[in-house]
Structure formats: C-alpha cells, structure tokens
Amino acid sequence: MALLKVKFDQKKRVKLAQGLWLMNWLSVLAGIIIFGLGLFLKIELRKRSDLMDNSESHFVPNSLIGMGVLSCVFNSLAGKICYDALDPAKYAKWKPWLKPYLAVCVLFNTVLFLVALCCFLLRGSLESTLAHGLKNGMKFYRDTDTPGRCFMKKTIDTLQIEFKCCGNNGFRDWFEIQWISNRYLDFSSKEVKDRIKSNVDGRYLVDGVPFSCCNPSSPRPCIQYQLTNNSAHYSYDHQTEELNLWVRGCRAALLSYYSNLMNSVGAVTLLVWLFEVTITIGLRYLHTALEGVANPEDPECESEGWLLEKSIPETWKAFLESVKKLGKGNQVEAEGVDAGQAPEAG
C-alpha cells in the first residue's frame, strides 16, 4: 500500500509544478547564501590561522561552499524539470531520469543535514586548537626580528584589543613567558641579571603584560608592570585591581565568537535543509502523479501521487534485498574472473 497517497487532477498538478518551480529558484538563492556563509567562515578562520596551531579544520567551510554550489546546480535543474512538466512532450525526455535524480536529491539532503550538524559540533576541535595555537603564539610575541614570526606581536596585540582579552586563559599567562625581546634588555643592569639567573631556563620573566591588555574603561591609568607588587603603586591591591586589565582570556573570547558564528551558520543551513526536503517531497509527488496518469492523451484525468510506493517496512525490506542481490552479483563476477584465471595459470 502506497504511503501518504494524494489524488491529483489537472489543476492540482499544474499548481504543484508551478509552486515547485518557484520554490526551486528560491532554493537557488538559498544555495548562494550557503556558499557565501561558507566563504565568510573560511576567511574568518584564515584570518587567525596563526593563532590556531596551523591545524584548524576547514572541512566545514569547504563543505558549505561545495553544498552551496551543488544546491544552485540541482535546484536550477529541478526548476527546469518542473517547468517542462506542464508540457507532456517536453516532460517525456525527463521521465527516465527523474527517479535517479530524486535518489541524488535524497543523498544531497542527507549530506546537507550532516554538514549542518558539523557546524554545531566544531566547538570541541576549535577549543583544543585555540589553546595550543595561542600558547605558541604568545611564545613568539618577542620575536619581532625573526623572519616568519615578526608579525606575531602585531597579530596578538590586535587580537587582544579587538576581542578585549588578555593572554590564553587570563593575563597571568604572560607571567610565565618571556615576552620582551633580549634586544630591549640592558644586560649590564643588576636587576636584569638577577631575574635571568633566578630562572632555570635563563628567561627574563616579569609580572607584567603587553599594553594591549589594558582596559581603557578603567578610571585608573593602566598598570602593566609589577602587577603583583602592591608597594610599587600607590593605593593598589592586585587582588582587587584586575579591572585595570582585560580579565577574560583570548581563548574563551575566540571560542565564544566562533561558536556563535558556527551556531548561526548551522541554524541557517538547517532551515535550507528543511526547504530542500520540502522540495524533494514535492518533486516525488509530482513525479508519481504524472506517472499515474492513466491516459496520457487525456490530461484532464485524475491520478494518484504518493511518497513511497509501499509502506516503510516493506520499502526497507526491498532495499535490503536489492543490496544483497547486488552483493551476490559482485561475488559471482569475482568467482568467474578467478575461474578464468586458473586455467591460464595451469
């Protein structure tokens, strides 16, 4: 028994074809939007690739770009099919290809749904990528004279100002690395020598942060150095003066930015997926309604359209049987090839 059977007369078939034609061209616009979102996401990831351990995954933006292009192609073709469906002579050339085309549409919708899910699941991989990338980037902050790293100081300063953040997890991360280049240290100074000797790795560590960590909203002039020394500043307590600097770490700031971006892209992709599924269902009804016309010479006659020719369990059973037959056919062909090679070997 057919699933979700609907009766169609000539008027209903024409309205269905016209509605699907319009929906397909709207879906072409949706495909352009998906393409644009994928391109925008790829650019945003490229912008800060130096702070992502150079291992950020471009699978999601590349997939969105590809699905956007395919959406434009498939829906343009479907629009042409729906337009020709109004003319029996033109529709005849599409008739043998419509069922394979519907199968491709089902596959396309499945992949589009998976890409939408990946948009929501990208947060986990981004979190670890950002943690390692920012940590390495901060180590290269001082290498302004080293080819290939001279831009890192500007990149991190711009990031901290733009996202109102400081360090990887917080401003205290700067206390653990030497972010001032040896070029700007006076090695004849006793203080510099003592600091370097007091460190096992021979690094110049200070309880200070770069200028880009300063919060301009703070009423007090920014305190960058000797942050943990209360006696170095008048009326100062480092336990309560943290608002003088950005408190949030850049990893959390970037993760929040990209998560919101990915959630928005995923939501739009899901809406487009629902629209594509609706179009595929409509095409299936149009296909079966036109196939069910008893007398092609009488276009006014009624016909029946359905979503599945059989019930869901029967359709699934038939699918499994066809897969088994296909597997057996391949096995027989393989045995035939082996049997043909055995006499030659003898």
Automatic annotation (TrEMBL):
CDD domains: peripherin_like_LEL. One of its GO terms (molecular function) is protein homodimerization activity. It is found in: Membrane; Photoreceptor inner segment. Its main location: membrane. It holds the Pfam family Tetraspanin. GO terms for biological process: cell adhesion; detection of light stimulus involved in visual perception; photoreceptor cell outer segment organization; protein heterooligomerization; protein homooligomerization; retina development in camera-type eye. The chain crosses the membrane at residues 20-41, 101-122. It comes from the Eukaryota. It is a multi-pass membrane protein. GO terms for cellular component: photoreceptor inner segment; photoreceptor outer segment; plasma membrane. Keywords: Cell adhesion, Disulfide bond, Glycoprotein, Membrane, Sensory transduction, Transmembrane, Transmembrane helix, Vision. Essential for retina photoreceptor outer segment disk morphogenesis, may also play a role with ROM1 in the maintenance of outer segment disk structure. Required for the maintenance of retinal outer nuclear layer thickness. Required for the correct development and organization of the photoreceptor inner segment. Belongs to the PRPH2/ROM1 family. PANTHER family: PERIPHERIN-2, TETRASPANIN. This is Peripherin-2. It comes from Monodon monoceros. The lineage of its organism: Eukaryota, Metazoa, Chordata, Craniata, Vertebrata. The gene is PRPH2.
